[in-house]
Amino acid sequence: MRIFRHLARLVRTTAFKLLAAYLAVFAIFAVSVIGYTAWHTRELIQNQVADDLDREVRYLAEQYHIGGIQRLVYVIDRRSRRPGSSIYMLANFQGEVLAANVSDLSLGLLDAAGTRFTTYNRQDDSGAGRSHVAFVQVFILSGGYRLLVGRDIEERDTLRDLVARPAQWAVVLIVVLGLAGGVFVTRRVLKRIDAMTATTETIMAGDLTGRLAVSGAGDEFDRLAHSLNVMLERIEALMQGLKDVSDNIAHDLKTPLTRLRNRAEEALRTARTEEDWRGALETTIEESDGLIRTFDALLMIARAEAGQARDTMTDVDLADLTENVAELYEPLADEQGLDLTVTSEPVVVHGVRELLAQALSNLIDNAIKYGRVPDGGRGRIAVRLARAGSDALLTVADSGPGIPAADRERVVERFVRLEASRTRPGSGLGLSQVAAVARLHGGDLSFADNGPGLVAVLRLPAKAGRDGGGAATDTASRR
Amino acid sequence: MNANLDPDTLTAMRLLLVEDDRDAAEYLRKAFREAGHVVDHAADGEEGLALALADKYDVLVVDRMLPLRDGLSLVAELRGRGHATPVLILSALGQVDDRVQGLRAGGDDYLPKPYAFTELLARVEALARRGGPQATDTLYKVADLELDRLAHRVTRGGKEIALQPREFRLLEYLMRHAGQVVTRTMLLENVWDYHFDPQTNVIDVHVSRLRSKVDKGFEVPLIHTVRGAGYMVRAGLA
């Protein structure tokens, strides 16, 4: 029973169905070729026989003309004795047989001239009579003599059998071998597919770290397994992102919420004057604004990582954007004792203008917050946009204390704020936002030492072409 | 033609509020009324559309997620029928692509929830003024401050003030809405065309730079800070 179920499964597979169809087409083709060849050979032999008969009849008629009926009888007699001779019969107008080497041909055959098939009995070695098919030609000589010359065409049929029998076997063999091959191939395919299905099932059961095996053969299954693995990686990253967001919401939103609640309770308990009430309410609003900001930042990161903003992407003139955002921050930097400079090359990227602007703004904001020179002197922030191969490199360098090499990786992680900066305002999500925007655009965010200071490098894939400024869609200068 | 920018001409507005949340609607009605405006209220999209089509309003304030007909569809339908009444869309969905959708549907402004009422009021007043004749004027005038939009020239008391292009646009926007509160986000959106939250108050520094050029050395300051809301250009002290 099991073997039937197994076979039924094999037969249902696409590979097997394809193979069966292919086999059927091939078998039909083989049968037609063999059939056509056999038919053609038979025709050829038939024509050959007809030609031979024709020639012999003409020769005998000639002999009759030369030497009359005696010569003809003599020639026929002599020819009859040769091995493998033709069939001869000569009769006069009364139907008396004058010469013949076959006894039982019906006389009626001689009635009309022309060619036809007939059967006759031939004495073989064992002495038993066996019916043979012959192709005969009847010719009427002057004087009412009728001459029949014929050929046994058994050979022709033997040849046909000679071709047809092996051909039948060949077709049977092709079908059997084909089916066996089909089962073999299909079983192999099924084995790979079953392995994939088993892995996917464990992944579906919740183990997102599972990956499909890649055999290394580089075949279509490997390609499929590779694509699925990339997809799984993406899903795992998204799930991790979702988990991070919910963890962060739980941890970092609850802290300010608790603070908000405590302040409100404290105000209820201790506030006496209208000024106290007003102050408490104002702090409450401030705290809730901070919460909203954090929440918005989290949502933005989650959305960017899910790639939802992709359909709002357009060609963005990054040079224009860089100059605009730097211009927006220049007075603030100046006020904070920092000189902000911008240098840019024409670069166009495909992206979300608003998010790119926010990313750069976060980097500059960060540089202003943490890039001040420790001794109180005048600091520098250099914003630079350059093209490097197929990438756009947007760097923001400051002259502040920088970040120790060991901490640079951690900086990008959500909510991670270095101990030293815990006291500064901000949600701590700024750089995570930049990293999320970079990932959305297929780029990345990294940090390097500016000796002294920090260099933040936002790498984005640039649009091809040196200068796409004309096609750029930056609306900052539009009124 | 000189624009009359006397703030006292800003009369009461007729607003239509389409909001399904009872508490929020009640709060907004009260707050708008206190600000001197007349508010009609619809609790779902169909009622909102019917009222907007039947009556003449200065501004529609439409929540994005509404029963029967959502806010975007309401605006699209209204625009499809040729109604040009300014619409401000309120929404809990505040990300970049949400805003783009809102403006594509025909909204004139998009404010994510939660918002400060001062922000909403300033935006609604700016929208109402937008339909007025001042928008097409080429010369803005507040007291002795004049801004020529064609010649890109600013003078105060007849003396020319040299401004950077961005400072010019900042002043232009403030003067177009003279007598109205203009919030920091409105300035960021309309002068810089950015809608993100800059975390630090970068706008304040720009305004103070502008102020040092426009008001310094003059008896009467024209650029005023409105506490807890934003800025306002007006003649004389409030």
TrEMBL record, chain A:
<keyword id="KW-0472">Membrane</keyword>
<keyword id="KW-1133">Transmembrane helix</keyword>
<keyword id="KW-0812">Transmembrane</keyword>
<dbReference type="InterPro" id="IPR004358">
    <property type="entry name" value="Sig_transdc_His_kin-like_C"/>
</dbReference>
<keyword id="KW-0808">Transferase</keyword>
<dbReference type="GO" id="GO:0016301">
    <property type="term" value="F:kinase activity"/>
</dbReference>
<dbReference type="Pfam" id="PF00672">
    <property type="entry name" value="HAMP"/>
</dbReference>
<keyword id="KW-0418">Kinase</keyword>
<dbReference type="InterPro" id="IPR036097">
    <property type="entry name" value="HisK_dim/P_sf"/>
</dbReference>
<feature type="transmembrane region" description="Helical">
    <location>
        <begin position="167"/>
        <end position="186"/>
    </location>
</feature>
<feature type="transmembrane region" description="Helical">
    <location>
        <begin position="20"/>
        <end position="39"/>
    </location>
</feature>
<dbReference type="InterPro" id="IPR003660">
    <property type="entry name" value="HAMP_dom"/>
</dbReference>
<feature type="domain" description="Histidine kinase">
    <location>
        <begin position="248"/>
        <end position="464"/>
    </location>
</feature>
<keyword id="KW-0902">Two-component regulatory system</keyword>
<feature type="domain" description="HAMP">
    <location>
        <begin position="187"/>
        <end position="240"/>
    </location>
</feature>
<dbReference type="InterPro" id="IPR050428">
    <property type="entry name" value="TCS_sensor_his_kinase"/>
</dbReference>
<dbReference type="Pfam" id="PF00512">
    <property type="entry name" value="HisKA"/>
</dbReference>
<dbReference type="InterPro" id="IPR005467">
    <property type="entry name" value="His_kinase_dom"/>
</dbReference>
<dbReference type="InterPro" id="IPR036890">
    <property type="entry name" value="HATPase_C_sf"/>
</dbReference>
<protein>
    <recommendedName>
        <fullName>histidine kinase</fullName>
        <ecNumber>2.7.13.3</ecNumber>
    </recommendedName>
</protein>
<dbReference type="InterPro" id="IPR003594">
    <property type="entry name" value="HATPase_dom"/>
</dbReference>
<dbReference type="Pfam" id="PF02518">
    <property type="entry name" value="HATPase_c"/>
</dbReference>
TrEMBL record, chain B:
<feature type="domain" description="OmpR/PhoB-type">
    <location>
        <begin position="137"/>
        <end position="235"/>
    </location>
</feature>
<dbReference type="Pfam" id="PF00072">
    <property type="entry name" value="Response_reg"/>
</dbReference>
<dbReference type="InterPro" id="IPR039420">
    <property type="entry name" value="WalR-like"/>
</dbReference>
<feature type="modified residue" description="4-aspartylphosphate">
    <location>
        <position position="63"/>
    </location>
</feature>
<feature type="DNA-binding region" description="OmpR/PhoB-type">
    <location>
        <begin position="137"/>
        <end position="235"/>
    </location>
</feature>
<dbReference type="InterPro" id="IPR036388">
    <property type="entry name" value="WH-like_DNA-bd_sf"/>
</dbReference>
<feature type="domain" description="Response regulatory">
    <location>
        <begin position="14"/>
        <end position="128"/>
    </location>
</feature>
<keyword id="KW-0597">Phosphoprotein</keyword>
<dbReference type="Pfam" id="PF00486">
    <property type="entry name" value="Trans_reg_C"/>
</dbReference>
<protein>
    <submittedName>
        <fullName>Two-component system OmpR family response regulator</fullName>
    </submittedName>
</protein>
<dbReference type="InterPro" id="IPR001867">
    <property type="entry name" value="OmpR/PhoB-type_DNA-bd"/>
</dbReference>
<dbReference type="InterPro" id="IPR001789">
    <property type="entry name" value="Sig_transdc_resp-reg_receiver"/>
</dbReference>
<keyword id="KW-0238">DNA-binding</keyword>
<dbReference type="InterPro" id="IPR011006">
    <property type="entry name" value="CheY-like_superfamily"/>
</dbReference>
